[in-house]
Amino acid sequence: MKELFKDRKFVFLWLAQAASGLGSTFATFSLSWLVYEMTGSKMAMGSIWLSFMLPNIIMQMFAGPYLDRWDRKKVMIFSEWFRAAVFLIPAILLPFEFLESWHLYIISVAIGLAQPLFYPASMAYIADILPKDKLTKGNSILEGTGQLMTLLGPTLGGILISAFSVELVLYILILALGIAGLLLMMNPSSKTQRVEQKESWFFQFKEGLQFYRVYPVLFWVGIMMMFINFSSGAAQPMFLPYITDELGGTAFQYGLFTSAFSLGMLGGSLLTGILKEPKNRKRVMLGSLFIDGVLFIGLAWTPYYWLALVFSFGQGLFAIIFNINNTTLYQRRVPEHLRGRVFSVRILLAQAGIPFGAALGGMFAEAFSIPLLFVVLGGLMVLTNLICWMHPIFEKLNDQEIKLDVDNRDFMAKK
């Protein structure tokens, strides 16, 4: 890994993603805290998540084809600075007691429009600046650093809210996102393909979709993730009331619970970076998500806060092992001129289940209970992975990389 830190481009990207990770974590933490503090409603927690995810998915759909036309570095900078500007609204209104719950929904929608620009552009940019044989190590460092920031963020956010106020958390997140944009400015522009302006959005989006006919297993991985993320989308807004209501925790303990998940992701990132790439990628990817589902069920049954921390750590560890292997799989197979739009289709497929989960999860928890919700969600994850394990298409996860002729989009003829 040492040689990566001698690469100036990688170092600036690494520092920028660290600042972005801290800012993004503070953003999620502070927004969740403000919503629940102002409303005390599980339905409101689900609906605020829904107001973020719906514009997120719409933006993925319409912006994806153009990410290969735009400068990816500038796209990332715009995403960081726009989000920093949006959070000036609560930072200014809250001290004067002018902030109302509807402001938070506007902020959530705005963030939902800007944030999905960053991740696919970032994935494509990493593949631009690193050679293929360094991608797994590079992804592990970046994922690990991002998770280190999200590890520190919730705990630090809980301490700052308990000792000071949520306003301080807002000020720090604005500063962190601003710094991330400045660091990205230090890097060169990406190697974007010069796509002719006459190509329509539909043509470019269709071109991204055609890639999945070359690698159909990646399409089915996206469908699988749609069901997995349905569970994640339903559970994520419920973690705050789960800790404070079900386990009798505080703001600090909620932050620590979220940090345990991130600590697990950090451990999984380090483990993936140290170990050799798996020969049986199917076993590693599907097995990781299966264990994640079992740990979800464990959260439902434990009455002990410390055990919930252990389960959260385990979920983070196995989730990141899947994510790193899945991301590397894409980066090695997607032609350069299609990376932005193919990664956007990937995220669109994976995230399509989240808003439905967020909406139904809040209603289910309000009508029944959070523990019962977690049992249902964990069972869905386990069942989904068992079905995928038995389906022959997922054997293709172990196939070697196919060399495609990507000049002039010749891969389109190989569908």
From TrEMBL:
Domain Major facilitator superfamily (MFS) profile: 9-396
Cellular compartment(s): Cell membrane
Transmembrane segments: 43-63, 75-96, 102-127, 148-164, 170-190, 211-231, 251-272, 284-301, 307-324, 345-364, 370-390
Taxonomic superkingdom: Bacteria
This protein's UniProt keywords: Cell membrane, Membrane, Transmembrane, Transmembrane helix, Transport
GO MF annotations in UniProt: transmembrane transporter activity
Keyword Cytoplasm recorded: no
Listed InterPro entries: MFS_dom, MFS_trans_sf, TM_effector
GO CC list: plasma membrane
Lipid bilayer topology: Multi-pass membrane protein
Pfam name, any one: MFS_3
Main location: membrane
Name the UniProt record assigns to this protein: MFS transporter
Keyword hit for Cell membrane: yes
